[in-house]
Amino acid sequence: MDEGSARRGLALLAGAGMKKINFAGGEPFLHPTFLGRLSRYCKEDLRLESVSVVTNGSLVREGWLRTYGRYVDIVAVSCDSFDEATNVAIGRGSGDNVRQLRQIAAWCGAAGVRFKLNTVVCRLSHGEDMNAGVAALRPFRWKCFQVLMVAGENDSERTLRDGRRFRITDEEYAAFCARHAGQGCLVPESNRVMAKSYLILDEYMRFLDREGKMPSPSILDVGVEAALAKVFWDRESFVERGGLYDWKKEDRAEGGGGCGTGGAEGLDW
Fold first, then answer.
1. For position 164, what pLDDT does the model report?
2. Which CA distances in Å does 135 have to 5, 36, 96, 110, 168?
3. Which of 231, 223, 238 is nearest to 17 (CA)?
4. First to last CA, the chain
5. Model-level pTM greater than 0.90?
6. Fewer CB atoms inside 10 Å of the end CB: C or N, the chain?
7. Where are the beta strands (DSSP E) in the chain?
8. Average pLDDT of 191-197?
9. Measured between alpha carbons, how far is 249 from 259 in angstroms, rounded to an integer?
10. Distance between CA atoms of 160 and 148, rounded to whole angstroms?
11. Rg (CA), the chain
């Protein structure tokens, strides 16, 4: 997608009531200049409350944060384990994931960007004690997802990825969360509240449906309201999983260096 089309889609979303944008992937830092320019557009032109980026961390560079960090509220880095052998087995990096994670946390601190951790709890990591690693990094928010099977995406040998070997039981996930309950920044997200509580657009500006149905028409063709009508979004689960929180970097002064506890105003959607 060219930058002009991306800007037009973002403007449509802002006009429909969007307050926060989360750039994810894939890996958004594969196109760092494109990502930076859109982040700036969202903050300076659309005046969004919050711009966040989710990354695996491998391509994040200090220079990018120096240049574009002023337009970004949150950088969330994926960290499924603090054991490098486990990360390699999962498919996270080649043995330097944790070192890069610590470096990014320091860069975010210097740039005034809030640092967040995202962990997918799976068969290879559910027994791990991550307390020491998380405490050392001091993220303001630590999202812990139960590994999710999505029909047509990762649930069989016929899909691009087969995630069945990573599945865990609800009890195993609950035990992981209980082991880390002392981390004030912990935000658990089980399969029950995760599956249909996100509004996700693909590279064609189409809303994705987590029930395995066809994506919506592009908002560039039919507008936001008509596209949204084609998918199901569970608003109650969105609130239950902590979808409303202190997502602006200005909230750092109120929330301190640990995890955020405040709440954002309700969304128009």
1. 72
2. 41, 30, 19, 19, 25
3. 223
4. 25
5. no
6. N
7. 20-23, 50-55, 74-78, 114-121, 141-146, 186-189
8. 69
9. 12
10. 15
11. 18
Q: At what angle do helices 32-40 and 3-15 cross, to 10 degrees?
A: 40
22: left (phi over 0), alpha (psi -120 to 50) or beta: beta
**Token reading at 107:** 């860069």
Which amino acid is residue 183, in one-letter code?
A: Q
- Asked if the model's pLDDT at residue 237 lies above 70, the reply is yes
Residue 186 three-state SS:
strand
Bridge partners of residue 117, in order along the sequence: 77, 142
Report the distance separating Cα 83 and Cα 95, nearest Å: 9
Dist. CA 114–CA 104, nearest whole Å: 11
* pLDDT tens for each residue of 153-184: 655 566 556 567 788 999 999 999 999 999 99
